[in-house]
Amino acid sequence: REREASEREASERAMGGPSGEDKAVCAVVMLKCPSAELLARSRDHGVWGLSESAGTALAAVLERGKSGKVALVFSVNMSGHFQGYALVSCGSPVVRRRLDIWGGLPGAREFVFAVEVAWVLAFDLPFADAKHLRSEATNKGVQTTKHGQEMSLENGCALLQVFRSAAAKHGASQAPTPRHPIKLGGGSSGPSQAASGSADDGEGAGGPALSLGSMSFEDYAGLFDKFRVVSQREGAAAFLDQLESLGWQEKEDLCKALGKNDFLDACRIVCSMNNIDFSSSRERHLEHLYDQMAP
Fold first, then answer.
1. Of the N and C termini of the chain, which has fewer Cβ atoms inside 10 Å?
2. 25 bridge partner residues
3. Residue 126: what pLDDT?
């Protein structure tokens, strides 16, 4: 046991443990992401994009912190994993700016703000590894924390520790330095000035709903891959239960991407792929579920 404790302390120091930058963490924020490719581009450029609501919320957390760092924990929607975490220094500007680096990736059109981030660890951590961490308010796992919402500092720091321990156990190294870093500066309007600032070019944060017929092949394939992941989490028979247990942000993302008819078509196809009977009662249940999920 003494040897294990010594190795754990050594790994914590090597992975930026409590004696490193993580010791200065004053808040931990959950960010749900629609695409793993967005995270890859974030690591490549050292920035992250934020919607109107998430950008405003993060700016308030950074301003309140005054000193120290805010940890951003990332999770790709419906992946069943956390994908890593990055740090933002309190006082860093959340800038109103659409960056070209996101391209046309799903979810990128909502990125009306940007902030510089320093990635610490980037690897898949199963939700099950943090199942002991539960919200005091809801008694649910920390993975159910809503997009852009703070965890309790106790749970947040404990989750970072789970990341560090898993990284040491599996030999994961710290995230590499961005190859093409972007420096945002503080010249553009931030969230606190958004109401009086100039209008942003392009579509609004929400944008129009997509339909199966108008999707690009990449969006189409990505959508059905999400449904496939959901259907296989605990076996095909649990498909409907898994849809109902999605987090609030995941449900909202589905409804933003699909109208009700296309949602039902997607469910019908996935049920067929998994040999699940798509009965009239199941269709009515899914219609009711969509109405409940719609923002």
1. N
2. 69
3. 94
Based on the number of CB atoms within 10 Å of its own CB, is 237 exposed (0-12), middle (13-18) or buried (19 or more)? exposed
**CB < 8 Å & 24+ apart, contacts of 88-92:** 88/58, 88/62, 88/115, 88/116, 88/117, 88/118, 90/26, 90/62, 90/63, 90/65, 90/66, 91/62, 91/63, 91/66, 91/67, 92/62, 92/116
Q: In 3D, which of 70, 58, 71, 84 has the Cα closest to residue 148?
A: 58
β-strands 25-33, 95-96 pairing: unpaired
For residues 86 and 16, the answer to whether their CB atoms sit within 8 Å is no
Distance of CA 138 to the CA centre of its chain: 20
Cα separation, 51 vs 99, whole angstroms: 13
Q: Are 92 and 188 in contact (CB under 8 A)?
A: no
Whole-model pTM over 0.85: no
DSSP 180: S
In the numeric block, which tokens belong to residue 65? 């912190």
205 class by beta-carbon count within 10 Å (0-12 exposed, 13-18 middle, 19+ buried): middle
